Structure formats: structure tokens, C-alpha cells
Amino acid sequence: MQTKKEFRKRDFFYLLPLWLLSLIVPDADDLYSYRSKEFKRRELYYLGTVLLLPLIWSDPHFHHLMVLAGIYAILALGLSLFLGYAGQISLGHAAFFGIGAYTTAILTTRYAFPTFLTFWASAATAATAAFLIGKPILKLKGYFLALATLGFGEIFLVIVQETQTLTGGVIGIFGIPWFSIAGFSFDTYLKQYYLIWGVLLGLFLFSKNLVRSKLGRASLAVAVSEDAAKSVGIDVAQIKIKVFVMSAAFAGFAGSLFACIMSTANPEAFSLGFSTLIVMMVILGGMGNLYGPIFGSILLTYLMDVLGRYQEWSLPIYGVILILLLIFFPDGIGTRFGIRLIYLIGYWAKKKKRDEGKL
Amino acid sequence: MSLLLVDEITKEYDGVRALDRISLEVEKGTIKGLMGPNGAGKSTLFHLISGMEKPDSGKIYFKGKEITSLEPNEIAALGVGRTFQTVQTLGNMTVVENIMTGMHLRLKGGLISSGLWLPWIKRTEKEALKEAKEILDRLGLLGRWKSPASQLPLGKQKLLEIGRAFAMKPDLILLDEPASGLTPAEVEQLSERICQLKKDGVTLFVVEHHMGMVMEIADEVVVLDRGKLIAQGPPDVVRGDSKVVEAYMKGKRLNNYR
Amino acid sequence: MVTWSSIPQLLSSGITIGAIYALVALGFVTITRASQIINFAQGEFVMLGGVITFFLLKGLNLPYFLAGLIAIIIVVMIGFLLQVSVIYPLQKASVLILIIATLGASIFLSSTSALVFGTLPKALPPFSGEQPIQIGELTIVPQSVWVLGATFLLLIVLYLLSHRTLLGKAMEATSTDPLGADLLGISRNLMVFLAFGVSAGIGAFAGILITPIYFTSYNSGTLLGLKGFIAAVLGGWGKNSGAILGGFVLGIVESLSVVFIPSGYKDGVAFAILLLILYFRPKGILGSPFIDSRRW
User: Which of C35, C92, C238, C276 is a plausible cystine mate for C192, CB 3.0–4.6 Å?
Assistant: First the structure.
């Protein structure tokens, strides 16, 4: 009898945080609540956390990680519109990220453009590239679309590496200035944090509006049934292109910020491996909602950081974790179910240990 | 004037004639039934009318305009809605959003303006939501307006798909086997809704196997068999036509030979 | 810029690398025919073939032939392992997830290779001597002859296996008509399992053939795999003959491209061809049993 009581107390300690977490973490199944105003309170919690966290925890490494996570989140957010909402595949988004980064790099270092301008120019070039490449490619589906986007990504890398005079080739471009607006320069991690998460917030709201609108519904329709979409007058090809261009613009914004943060731009960062990583962020976070990619980017940025300590073991472990995550969380961790599952696994493991201890 | 005119349509697949010089008309404000045993070419005809496939020869006219070579979404824009044999509800959205998707052509909103949620977008969306809910109410689906569409039972999903087509405010709706998979009670409900649609001014062209339902709601029936049009006319007349009986019975007759 | 007179030379090296692309492409098609899956880790099988043989040869001092044989067997085991641990659990997953999973496997294999065998490029000794053969203006390395010869030999063996043995016929059946084969009692999973093994074996074989000419290192698999895939699409997706034809065509075109464009862009040629093919003729040169306008 005593054992049963003990269990209850301990269970409570496990279940309470789980319950709290499930209050905070968005549930991908809760469709309409996202796309409506009824979600406001939870979102204020998130907003508050995002705003206050770096002030509470002032470790510069943490700030640095969150800066990176924020950039990747912008990238993943855009990609999730294309991947999760429109239901397509892209393995080449690192190229748009790269186009954005190089646009900013070239314009600031060679032509002394202000970073505020290059921010928009980067998105514009990335969007243009997406428009040009999208028209022919988006007629494809499934594996072939994946392959075509992959091909585009590789061609981008080859071009960057070969056009030495423009892009600095394999070495890249150095000396990109800090991002600055009207003289105010974002030179510390803390300032960069607010800059990037501010941009993310803006783009997030923009995305939310998009998803709630006629374009959002059209994209979702295209993802489920192109025939049904056509039958209500939706121009499927046009929708795909619009979403593709939009996601590339986001990548362009992210690339621009990335260039300013890292102050260098070189081709290594824009490989197929990186495209895979971003897609993974979208999948991991859960493809059904807009918080997913943000969640996924924070998670994976941290994972990368942790793995980095293992040097040459980092990639093999990364490969294994990737596969395991796909097998066990194909719908993403960023759902209530995912969080519960992790917790339950941990709980069950500890319970087993306790049982064995008792015996 | 006929709303829809099909003129000598022929379609072949790998040498098999799915449709052989089919001609028919659908008058505005009527319900026309399209029947025939399996493989007769009914769904093929719908695919051709709605633009999903192109005929090998012949022409199709809608409201006097030739639509033979138009894309499905262009044909939809002219006022043709349709449902599908395997119901294509948009399961990743809520019930009401399915209807609102049907209103796509009637709503305003570009990429940037939607993203910025400009005041007129807000207004349009609000009105759309209101109208969508009204449509759901008439279909008896209002209670579940916020649920994901995938959670509805099949009968209600079929109604939802019809609602989506109706939301386009089309002149013509092509219904592809709306009654398949439904219980008798649901078929009753469906018939009522279809008649209601007719009262709302929509012309309907219905492919259906369910004889009872077709006989009840159709003003005229067309029967296909193996790509050829074998009978046309009011339901009672067609039902008694010997060619029609033979087409449907041939399956049974083979059985008797055992 | 390279001159026109070097065309015969370029042609011969193009045919040599083309044979390798053909083998890699064949590996892709084997798996796809059995399972509709595209294995992005295919290139790693090639890499591992070369790298493991090197290790067995130089590290354990095994005779060349034995080293090669054991390496192939090991890579086949790895192929089986891949199917069981990654593909089988994900059989119901979406296309996107399968793609990322095989990419993940590719990352795992290449980085583990770097970990275990080091990052330095490995070169294997040529099969029969280093003295290049002169035919007129053409200089051919004996290894190239081996590559072509062995490739054709393998193709004949594979053809015989798939058409003369029961198992081979079962695999063919599964590719042509999965449902029918299933109803006949042919276990789909077993066929996919075997397909992975066969693919891995072909890949490893190709790796051993090519390493004496071009070095192999932990990261050469990825690019090779992609090019092999492109070759398969180019020749006619889903057809064995398409894979082979595509391989040679890609090899030759890529090799000859340096006459027209700066050599640094050579790797991009394959991808440019890919985009062109996907846009103008996704079926590939010989047409494809898989591509039907609605599905792809």
C-alpha cells in the first residue's frame, strides 16, 4: 500500500510539468485555433518568453545560439509554407539562403550599400531566382521535384565556387559590416537577438495572415488534392510559384542577416547538408502549424551545438539521430503528442529503474 | 438555350473507345442524369467537360462558349463546379474552410495584401466566413464548422464537397456518383439537397448508379454503354427502353449461363 | 580552354567514367524497381567499396582479389542493414521523409567512413600494371579497359541472374507488377531487402573498379551518387537499359563539356542536364515505365 502512495506522489512530479508543457506547446491538430483570434493568450506567453529570456539568462553563448536559431527559424518558416502548407518538396533552399547572403555580402563590401537596403535586395534577388527556376520546376512532383531543387542547389554552389571575381570563390567574402539601421549598429549578440527575433516576429505575423487568407486555403487545397483545387478555380501552378517565391524571399532575408552576423560568406554553409538540415527543422517541428519550424530550428540548433563537442563523431551521431527522429516523430516533436511521447518515454524508463530498484 | 453542349466527343485510351461520338445537351435549370453500367464512360465524360482531360475529337460548349481546350480552373471560373467520385474533401482544413475554399474565385486578395491583413481583406474574410456558415447551415453541417474536415463521416463529407462546389455560385454543377457509399437515409437527404440546389437556380448534371435516386430527381436521363449513347429522355421512358435494360442486364445474363 | 584535338582522349575517359555512372545508376534503378524508393545513399556504397578494399589491402595486407571480394560482401551487408534499420521502419512514410532518411543515412555512412578510415583520399593499385597503352594519339590506362570489361561482365551476370534464376525472376516480377507479385506469394519485403543488397554490391564493385583511376575519399560518394541518379533519369527512369545508356551518355557529355566551358563547371554539367531533362523530357531517352503524368 505504501508503494502505491509513493508512486502517486512521484507521478505528480512528472505529470505536472508535462501538463504545463502541453499547455504551452501548440498542438498541430488544433487547426482552427491557429487560424483564428482565439489563440491570443497562449501567444502572449510565447511573446513574453521571447522578449524576456535573453535578459534573464545573459550567457553570451546562449545569445549566440538563439541568434542562429532565429535566423534558421526565419528560413524554416518560409520553407514550411512551401513544404508544410503547400505540400511540396525543396532540397535546395540553402541556395536561396546563399543567394541572400551573397547579395548582401557583395553589395555591402563592394558597393557600400547600407545593410538596411541590402536586407530587402537580398530577398528580392532570392525571390527572383525562385521565380525563374520555379516556373519550369514546379510542374514536377514528388521525387522529381526534390531532385530538381537539389540540382538547382548544386548548380548554385558550382557557380559560386567558379565565379571568383564576384563571389570570392571557395574562400568567400570577408568583412561584411554589422547590420545597422540609421546609425544604430547591431554589434553584440544581445542586440542581434532582438533584431532577428523582431524580424522573425514580423514575418511570423505576415505568415499567419497569409495562412488565414484565401492564398493559405488555396495552398492547403493544392497540397491535398490538386484536382479539387482546380475544380474551384485555383490556378495550381500559380499558387505553387507564389508560395515558392515567398519561401525564397524569407530565405533571402535570413541569408542577409546571416551574412551580417557572421561577417563572412562562403559556399560551405550553403550545401545540400544544410538544405537537409532546414527541411529537418520543418519536419521535426511539425508541419501543420507555423510554430513548428520555429520550434524545430531552436531544437536543431541546440542539437548541433551539443553535437559539436563530439568533433568527428558529430556527423555520424547526427545521421543516426536524424533517422531515429524520422522514424519515431514523422509528424514532428512540436506537437502535444510529441512532447508527451518524449516525457512518457523518460517517465517509463525511470519507472522501470525504480521497479528494479525496489526488487 | 442549352447551358452545356457536348458535340460529337470521342476519347480513346490505348485503342479502347471510352467515348464514341457522344452528343448531348443540358438545359438550364434542369437536373440531368447520366447513367450506364461500369466502364460506360461516364466519369470520362465528366473529366472531359471539367477540363481534366482533353477529347480526341469533338467540342464542348458552355454558355455558348467553347471550353474544349480550356484548363480545369478556367472552366471553373466560367461557372462549372464539380464533385468527385472519390470524395476530395480538403482534410487538412476545417469544415468551414472547405466551403471558403470554394469561394476562392469570388474573394479578393493578393499575396502582399493578405499578408499585411489590410482592412479590406479583413472585411472580405469576415463576410466569407458568414456566407460559408450559412451554406453549412443549409446543408445541416453547421454544428461541426470548426472540426477538421477529415473527421466527418463519408455522407457528410460528400455534402461538404457539394457545398464547396455550390460556394462558387456556379451555373452548373457536375456531381460524380454522389450517392455511392451512402446509407439509404443519407441518399434521401442527398436527394433533398440536390432538389434544393435546383431551386437555388443551379443546373445539375449527375452521374449516378442509384436508379431510385436518379428516377426521383432527374428531369432527363442519358444512358451510356461502352462509350455509346444508347438512350435519352425522361426517366420513365428511359427505364423501360429495351436497350437500357439489356445493357444493365448483360451481367446478370452471363451469370445464368452457369 | 581545351582544344578539339583532345576529343578522342576525352571520349575515352568519358566512356570510362560513364561505365561507373552506369553501374551507380543501375544500383538506383534496382532499388526503385523493387520498392519505388530512391536511395540517396547509393553513392556511399561506391565509396565504401573503394575505401574498405583499400583498408583490407593496405591495412590488413590481404591479397587484392580477396580484399575486393570481402569488401563487396561487407558493403552488401551494409546495404541489408540500411534496408532493415531505415527503409523498413519507414515503409509507410511520405516521400519527403524517405528522402531525408536516406540522405541521413548518406551522411552517416560518409562521416563514419571518415571516422574509421580517415579523411585522406585512397588510391588502389591498378589491376594490371600502370603502363598506359598507346593507340594512335590515344593514351589509355589499362584500368579503363578493366572498368569497361568488368562492367559488361557484371551486366551479363545480372541479366542472367534476373532472367534465369527463380529469385531473379521474382525480383523482376515485383518491379513490373508489385500487387501481382504479392498475390503470388512473393514477399515484397524480401525483394526490397535483396534489392538493397544487390544495389550495394553493384555499387561496391563500381567503387573498386574506379578507385585506381580516380581517388576515393569519404566524401566522394555523395556527388557520384547524385550523378548516377541523374544518369538513370537521363536514360529512362526505371529501366535497366536506361540506367546503362544514361550512364555512358552522361559520362561522355560531361567529359566533352570541358571543350566548351571552363573545367571548373564540369560538376555542374550533370545538374544542368538534369534540369533540362526534367523540363523537356522527364521520361528520359528511352522512356520510362514509371512516369505517368498524374503520378510524377
Answer: C35
pLDDT digits (tens, 9 = 90+) for A90-149: 999 999 999 999 999 999 998 989 989 999 999 999 999 999 999 888 988 888 899 899
CATH of the domain at A318: 1.10.3470
Judged on CB neighbours under 10 Å (0-12, 13-18, 19+), A220 is buried
* Contact between chains at C268 and A158 (C-beta distance less than 8 A): yes
Asked if residue B191 and residue B79 are part of one domain, the reply reads yes
List, for residues B161-192, the tens digit of each pLDDT value. 999 999 999 999 999 999 888 888 888 888 98
In Å, how far is C290's CA from the nearest CA of chain A?
12
Q: How many CA atoms lie within 13 A of C247 on its CB side?
A: 28
- Interface touch C111/A322, C-beta < 8 Å: no
| B161 within domain boundaries | no
> Is residue B100 less than 8 Å (CB to CB) from chain A?
yes
Interface touch A210/B111, C-beta < 8 Å: yes
Residue at a domain's end among B151, B185, B200: B151
Residue indicated by cell numbers 436521363 = B221
Please name the member of A32, A224, A231 whose beta carbon is closest to the beta carbon of B91. Answer: A224
Contact between chains at C267 and A276 (C-beta distance less than 8 A): no
Q: Which residues of B touch A226 (CB under 8 A)?
A: none
State pTM to two decimals: 0.88
Each residue's pLDDT tens digit, A187-243? 888 888 999 999 999 999 899 889 888 999 999 999 999 999 999 999 999 999 999
Query: Residue by residue, what is the 3-state secondary structure of C258-288?
Result: HHCCCHHHHHHHHHHHHHHHHHHCCCCCCCC
Q: CB–CB of C276/C47 below 8 Å?
A: no
HSE value, Cβ hemisphere, 13 Å, CA-based, for B132: 25
A218:B104 CB<8 A: yes
- Tell me which residue in A32, A232, A288 faces B101 most closely, judged by beta carbons: A232
Q: What is the ipTM of this complex?
A: 0.89
Does the residue A350 lie in any domain? no
Is residue B72 within 8 angstroms of chain A, CB to CB? yes
Q: Write the DSSP symbol of residue B148.
A: B
* B150 vs A contacts (CB less than 8 Å): none
CATH for B38: 3.40.50.300
Supply A352's cell numbers: 522501470
Structural domains of chain C, with CATH: 4-280 (1.10.3470)
List chain A residues with CB under 8 Å of B89: 228
Burial A94-109 (b: 16+ CB within 10 A, else e): bbbbbbbbbbbbbbbb
**Could you tell me if B60 and B7 are in contact, meaning their C-beta atoms sit under 8 angstroms apart?**
yes
Q: Does residue B181 contact residue B154 with C-beta atoms inside 8 Å?
A: yes
Query: Any idea which residue has 512551401 for its cell?
Result: A82
Cα distance between the two ends of chain B: 50
Q: Does B117 touch chain A (CB under 8 A)?
A: yes
